[in-house]
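Troubleshooting: if your tokenizer reports a length mismatch, compare your output against this known-good record of 467 residues.
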Amino acid sequence: MRQIDFMDTTLRDAHQSLLATRMKTSEMLPVLEEMDQIGYYAFEMWGGATFDSCLRYLNEDPWERLKTIRKYVKRTKLQMLLRGQNILGYSNYPDDVLELFVRKMIEDGIDVVRIFDALNDPRNLEKPIEFAKKYGAHVQGAISYTVSPVHTIEKYVEFAKKIVDMGIDSICIKDMAGLLTAPMAYSLVKELKEKFSLPIEVHSHFTSGLADAAYWAAIEAGADIIDTATSALAYGTSQPAVEPFAMSLKDSKEFSMNLDMNKINHVNEHFIKVRAAHKADDVSMTTIDSRIFSAQVPGGMLSNLVSQLKAQNALDRYDDVMKEIPQVREDLGFPPLVTPTSQIVGVQAVLNVLNGGRYKMVTKETKNYVKGMYGKSPAPISEEIIKKILGNEKPINVRPADLLEPALDKAKKEIGDLAQNDEDLLSYVLFPQIAKPFLEKKYVAKVKVDFKMVDEYTSQFLPIYPV
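Known-good structure output:
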């Protein structure tokens, strides 16, 4: 019998998807030791939007969260999601920042680093993989899955070969929008297993209702690990629940699992209470969102678009924006809609609709994308679109981070003694506008911080669909 392992997303992606990443460390602590006894392969508990959210909304140091969880979790691997050269932000960072970040997160407790690039551009993964290997982590290379005329199994396998050659230890199919069908899951996993002798993990969201079937097909094709959440924080825009898979595998004659169902049930009771305490932030999704099939827009992106249009008194233009998003995505070379490309495409679509013409107003992020500062688009961008967006500027053809100057020394001078360690310095480099007031509040008593002003200043950079 072949054992299927489970990676639990409850402490990161599950509450990021359902509760706007508002779960506090204190709400995790009561059950961490029991979770550690369940038998999960790993906990995804850091990275993604958690770093930003800790600083911005929870008045928590994200580095302390990592260290604290590490104290309680002794058996299970701790996993984080790294946005390649973007680290945890929304644009590329220079290599000196990236290396220090990777070194510190591994020193502070991370065992497994899942690294992805929104465009599946291998150049944006070279250094993250190199540094994570250098400092001793298990490096998982992720394929950002989407559907378009240029995203084929052959292309995904070609990309996988490039990152396998960089030395990754396992492969993840990362289906952030829930577009992976059972036939595609079976075919892609089977092809990857035949080509590479590495563990294959499958990650999906239940937004469209496809994920359960996709997971079963992936298991039958040879997948080694599936990503699930405890049922209290599963389904909707989150991952499938662990309980049905565990029980079904328990009765299987082909596959086995090694999870303690009694402990799962007890832990789930705790997270039922935690979720109930976050009703104000709960997406409360009671049905699948079939609009994702036509617009290919992740569920979290939909809710944010509604908020943007409401703020502009333009909710009546919602259908127009939904029709414009696929057009902008096609114009930009079919990027997968995942941070930061989801923001770029979504905001530009809103501008196109509200300004009464396509690309009459263009964001700085759209210009940088077309210029190549985020990487190479999956499909070529037409000369007409390049001219319309860049004017006489020319796109770059080098690794984007090669154009960035080292940033650590400059940041040290800017933040001074307020950064009392490398972790503080990195928080400042990644999120200067929110980290500085956070550090002032942390180290200097009774400093009044206007977080409303900070949020307004940085709102343009917030993820439409956090990953």
